[in-house]
Amino acid sequence: MKLIQNMINMKINVITSEELLKYAKQYNINVSKAQAEKIAAFLRGKNFDIFNDRTRSQIIREVAKISGPNTAKEINKLFIQFTR
User: Fold this and answer.
1) What is the pTM of this model?
2) Total domains in the fold of the chain
3) Could you identify which of 9, 24, 37, 43 might form a hypothetical disulfide with 29, taking C-beta atoms 3.0 to 4.6 angstroms apart as the criterion?
């Protein structure tokens, strides 16, 4: 299980805006290209652990500042799906 967690966290920490847009489309989350670039720039290289509730909450707060609360809620749902 730890291996899968590490793989998911690694993907989050190196995600590109294009990948983020692809996942957003796949999971019906409305994100503009500009928002995806800002979110990806925020996530990239930070070594976040989305399996940690406190860290995930911090990420979602920052995403809400970038893309709005509705998009942040949808991304949080996506993160929760990844962590289960």
Assistant:
1) 0.83
2) 1
3) 24
